[in-house]
Amino acid sequence: MWQQFGIAIALLLVIEGIIPFLSPTGWRKTLQVISEMPDEKVRLIGFVSMISGVILLYLIH
Asked: Where does the chain cross the membrane (predicted)?
């Protein structure tokens, strides 16, 4: 189980690093837009992302 958790974290880091590697300027602009959003909208985006991940895990498993 810990090995799978480690693999999941490693894949997360790889995926998170793709955008700043390919387009650092676009990544900075996106972060700036996100930093100007109200907290409620950022929380909604995070919630939708988490639910999407849970649904995807359920469908794959």
From this structure: 5-22, 42-60
Question: Which run of H or E residues covers position 61?
Answer: none
- Cβ-based neighbours of 42, under 8 Å, separated by 6 or more: 34
Structure tokens at 55: 């649904």
Three-state DSSP at 44 gives: helix
**What is the C-alpha separation between 32 and 26, in angstroms, rounded?**
10
pTM above 0.90, yes or no: no
Half-sphere exposure of 49 (CA within 13 A, CB side): 6
46 burial via Cβ count (<10 Å: 0-12, 13-18, 19+): exposed
Residue type, 52: S
